[in-house]
Structures are given as structure tokens and as C-alpha cells.
């Protein structure tokens, strides 16, 4: 038992690793601040395009959504970071991670938005237009708020998944939380920094998971 505590829950090692892990947490936060808003915005564009009157546009967006939902994010990240240089395009680790996660997240967010928009009855459109609102105003002021409310738990749940995906950035040597913890592990020859990173993820995401559960029950009620 003592050996287990020393190897995985060594408080002295955690204290030594804390400055490096904290720096990695800051980079993870920066990555989330970039990827999540871009994913939400890109997802809305994908949803609108999927509901377009143009059949060609709808099929193009369907292929986009299916492709990037089916392709593992890790594979996509490696293709972008290691494959694009062969085409003469070199991206920094941060830019490569942002692009990979944007493509992945927007495809998932797009399907969630689409489901939310389709859940709003056609009568809401007609009622909004009858008040003199333009199609854009009716969508922005009436349809979209209801659509977001209907799928809010799914949006929050997918955002949690995006935050967890940031740990994949370590494969391109981006110094996010997991990469920083792993560097501390390699220096101390102790797994406690990895446990510390796991505890930080848990402290950040567990309240959001509970919030998602409450939202699901409230909307169902």
C-alpha cells in the first residue's frame, strides 16, 4: 500500500510538478478558448447549410459531417500536422490542433444544431413571419433560441468531450495539461503528476457533467 501511495499519490512529487502542470493547464485553457467558440460557430454554419434549399450544398455538408465524425480525431490531427508539410503547408502545433478539433467539433455541433432546429415546429416560423420579421430575424430571435434550449444538454455534453480531446494535443508536442504532466513524470520517474492531471480534469469537468444531467432532467420535465 505504501509503495502504491508513493508511486501514484506522492504529494511531494505533485508539489514539485505543480508549476509545470499549472503552465500546461493554462495552455489547455487557451486551446479550449480557441476551439470551443470556433466549433460552436462552425457547427451552426454546418447546420444552416444542411437545411439549405440547395441539394448540392446539403449533400456536400452531409459528406463533410459524416467524414469528420467518422474519422478519429487523433488520426485527423496527425494527418494535418505531419501530412500537410508534404503539400508545402507547415502549421504550428497550436494551429494544427485548432484546425483538427475545429473540423471534428463543428461536424458534431452541426448535427446537434440541426436536430434542435428541426425540433422547432413549422408554426413558429409562420408565427414569427406574420409579425413582420424577416426570415433572418425570425431565425435569430425566435427559432434559434428555442432550438438551442432543446439541445442544450447535448451541446454542453459535446463541449465536455471537446475539453477532453485537448489531451490529444500532446502527440504533436503541444504543452497542454497531459503533456506537461508526462514531462514531469519522465523527470521524477513517478506517476503522481499524471494522477494530478487526472484530478484537475475531474475537478473541472465533473461539475459540468452534473450540470448536463440536471439540464436533461429539467428539459424532460
Describe this structure in words.
By secondary structure, this protein is an all-alpha fold. It has a single domain (2-220), classed as MetI-like fold (Orthogonal Bundle), CATH 1.10.3720.10. Helix content is 82%, strand content 0%. The chain is built from 10 helices and no strands. The protein has helices at 2-8, 11-50, 55-70, 73-83, 93-119, 122-130, 135-150, 152-165, 177-188, 192-220. Helix 2 runs antiparallel to helix 3 (55-70) and helix 9 packs antiparallel against helix 10 (192-220).
**Most strands sheet:** none
User: What quaternary form is this?
Assistant: single chain
Low-confidence stretches: none
- Beta-strand portion reads under 5%
How far apart the termini lie comes to 47 Å
| H/E series | HHHHHHHHHH
Structural class, please? Answer: mainly alpha
The domain tally reads 1
CATH homologous superfamily descriptor:
MetI-like
Mean pLDDT across residues: 87
| Number of DSSP helical runs | 10
Helical content stands at over 70%
**CATH architecture annotation name:** Orthogonal Bundle
- Anisotropy-based shape: globular
Return Rg in Å: 21 Å
Total beta strand runs = 0
Per CATH, the class reads Mainly Alpha
What is the CATH topology descriptor?
MetI-like fold
Amino acid at each position: 500500500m505504501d509503495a502504491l501511495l508513493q508511486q501514484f499519490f506522492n504529494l511531494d512529487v505533485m508539489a514539485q510538478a505543480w508549476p509545470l502542470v499549472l503552465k500546461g493547464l493554462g495552455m489547455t485553457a487557451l486551446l479550449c478558448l480557441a476551439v470551443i467558440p470556433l466549433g460552436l460557430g462552425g457547427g451552426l454554419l454546418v447546420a444552416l447549410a444542411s437545411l439549405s434549399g440547395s441539394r448540392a450544398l446539403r449533400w456536400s455538408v452531409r459528406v463533410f459531417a459524416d467524414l469528420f465524425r467518422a474519422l478519429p480525431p487523433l488520426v485527423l490531427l496527425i494527418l494535418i500536422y505531419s501530412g500537410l508539410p508534404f503539400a508545402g503547408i507547415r502549421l504550428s502545433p497550436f494551429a494544427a490542433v485548432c484546425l483538427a478539433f475545429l473540423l471534428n467539433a463543428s461536424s458534431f455541433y452541426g448535427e446537434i444544431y440541426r436536430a434542435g432546429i428541426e425540433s422547432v415546429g413549422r408554426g413558429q416560423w409562420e408565427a414569427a413571419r406574420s409579425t413582420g420579421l424577416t426570415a433572418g430575424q425570425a431565425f435569430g430571435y425566435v427559432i434559434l433560441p428555442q432550438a438551442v434550449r432543446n439541445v442544450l444538454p447535448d451541446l454542453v455534453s459535446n463541449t465536455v468531450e471537446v475539453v477532453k480531446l485537448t489531451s490529444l494535443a500532446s502527440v504533436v508536442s503541444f504543452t497542454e495539461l497531459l503533456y506537461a504532466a508526462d514531462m514531469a513524470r519522465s523527470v521524477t520517474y513517478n506517476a503522481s503528476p499524471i494522477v494530478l492531471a487526472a484530478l484537475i480534469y475531474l475537478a473541472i469537468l465533473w461539475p459540468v457533467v452534473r450540470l448536463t444531467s440536471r439540464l436533461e432532467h429539467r428539459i424532460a420535465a
